[in-house]
What does this fold into?
Amino acid sequence: MNANSTLVTDKLSRPIKDLRISVTDQCNFRCSYCMTAELFGPDFPFLQQKELLSFDEITQIVEQFAKLGVEKLRITGGEPLLRKGLANLIRELNRIHGIKDIALTTNGVFLPKQLQKLKESGLKRINVSLDAIDDHVFRRMNGRNISTEPVLKGIKEAMDAGLPVKINAVIKKGVNDSQIIPMAKYFKDTPVILRFIEFMDVGNTNGWSYQSVVTKKEIISEINRFFPLEPVNKNYQSEVADRYRYLDGGGEIGVISSVSDSFCGNCTRARLSADGKLFTCLFAQKGHDLKKLLRNEKLSPKQLLMELQNIWGKRSDRYSEERGKNPISIADKIEMSYIGG
Ligand code: SAM
Ligand code: SF4
Ligand code: SF4
It folds into this structure.
């Protein structure tokens, strides 16, 4: 089978290009929009070590995905830097033919300690989640009273190490919308790209309602009042953020408008949970158990490739487009901390 004959598109003619890999469901934060402290308490049944995909299993799966057209990987979680030896996984993934880009999404607290190894492993880019510059607001939002200090240090060190850095800021109405301008100000005139994310109805536990969403339009008009902006074309068709640049040359920002202006038509992403379930949409109810196929059914690489091809070929997900302003009532939606953002 030559490489090209294995490329696949789904029922809506979307190829598969990106794979987000969650390496743990645990986290040192308890962000209210993701893992509320009340529900993810000390007794929460997080996955056991033996339930997690091993690095070798992840590598085997990515090798087949690369044959289907996956070029970009994003390592996420939970908090991915809690997974021991993460740089070793990245080094292996970086060797896979066809993989052009490996990025990491992290809350940044453990970055200073691990940065050098991550850089040496072949990691190309880092997204750091930071929802406020004001220390009080940040401490409240992360649910663990952790200060911005280690996160800002991690961001600075990543930049000093020459890694491109983007910031992800989820904005919740009445909680941290006061931070839109201070954050824009903080990162303006730096190479860091600040991206605002509309609060999404992922999972069943974050109390989402449309009223708590600050929309792309609202975010842009707020920033425009202080720092005039103009839109910029996307870098590539499936880019999730809409880009804007400061008219005075102070750099660019992005907005990910999954709620008010969804982009399912260009969605080329699949997600692999830490325990090996493959999800073809952030809002899918059920994953395909790849760990079982590898561990119990001992699928050969070629059989696994055919299985993945089959799963993607049947995909027709477009949840955000169908949802509009009203959450669709789906029992047992998957939590963001489990599926990986
Ligand atoms: N712990 C890492 C972090 O926070 O960067 C990686 C995992 S986290 C689930 C990945 C991204 O998902 C973060 O940028 C986070 O802000 C975003 N996220 C989580 N819950 C969200 C929600 N309900 N709406 C929008 N974005 C969300
Ligand atoms: Fe943890 Fe990231 Fe979820 Fe916050 S968004 S609770 S840092 S996994
Ligand atoms: Fe992709 Fe599903 Fe999000 Fe639409 S809702 S952009 S299909 S992950």
In short: The longest strand covers residues 165-171. The chain has a mean pLDDT of 94.
